[in-house]
Specification:
The chain is mostly helical. It contains ten helices and no strands.
């Protein structure tokens, strides 16, 4: 096979793999892990189930591949950014603007009782935020660390829970809170302010929010 033929084959495989992962993302988020088969994913992607097995493995491997791909997209929104507040803001916006299907997949899988050890075994965006929170806390004066004595892992876990909860239940929360007619951008700005406020309040070593000049 010529180099050009090999390149076309590589691109074809990449496109097919992307289509399979997109189909799996949609189905897992719509129906949950247990209700979806490899044949369902293959049918949605327009390929044979044998090709799915060949490219990505069985259902467990396919599920983990979907989680990894979407998690990497959120993590990539703040590559190597050492600032906790900026990284949180960038990841939050990436997730809520472009990753709703991923959020629904995580929430549906957790609520249906799928054990954590059936996932990828790690969520790197969350780990990154914990790393940055612990770094900020370590740089704070002892008096501030004593005043804000929450484990940074708990703070980040609560922030992630708020992010997931809003992303999964917004269609109910907006009318319930009288926010049905509120502009999307205004809502996202508000959620960001709340989450960054939690971090400033409970993680030592962060600059307090500065009031706007009159």
């Amino acid at each position: 096979m010529t180099d050009e033929g090999k390149e076309q084959q590589r691109r074809g495989r990449e496109a097919t793999t992307a289509a399979i992962l997109d189909a799996a993302q949609e189905l897992f988020s719509e129906h949950g892990y247990d209700a979806v088969s490899v044949r369902d994913v293959a049918a949605r992607a327009g390929v044979s189930h044998a090709l799915v097995h060949r490219y990505l493995g069985g259902k467990a491997e396919l599920f983990r591949a979907v989680l990894t791909q979407r998690e990497n997209t959120i993590l990539a929104a703040a590559p190597d950014n050492p600032d906790l507040l900026e990284s949180t803001s960038l990841m939050l916006r990436q997730g809520l603007e472009y990753g709703r299907s991923h959020i629904r997949l995580i929430v549906r899988s957790a609520m249906s009782g799928l054990p954590y050890d059936r996932t990828t075994g790690r969520f790197e965006a969350t780990e990154r935020l914990i790393e940055l929170a612990e770094r900020a806390a370590a740089s704070a004066p002892p008096s501030e660390r004593a005043a804000k004595d929450l484990d940074p892992r708990i703070v980040i876990a609560c922030v992630v829970a708020l992010f997931l909860g809003w992303g999964a239940t917004e269609s109910w929360l907006r009318p319930a809170a009288g926010l049905a007619d509120t502009d999307d951008a205004e809502l996202l700005d508000g959620i960001e302010r709340v989450i960054l406020g939690i971090l400033r309040e409970d993680v030592p070593g962060l600059e307090p929010d500065q009031p706007e000049s009159p």
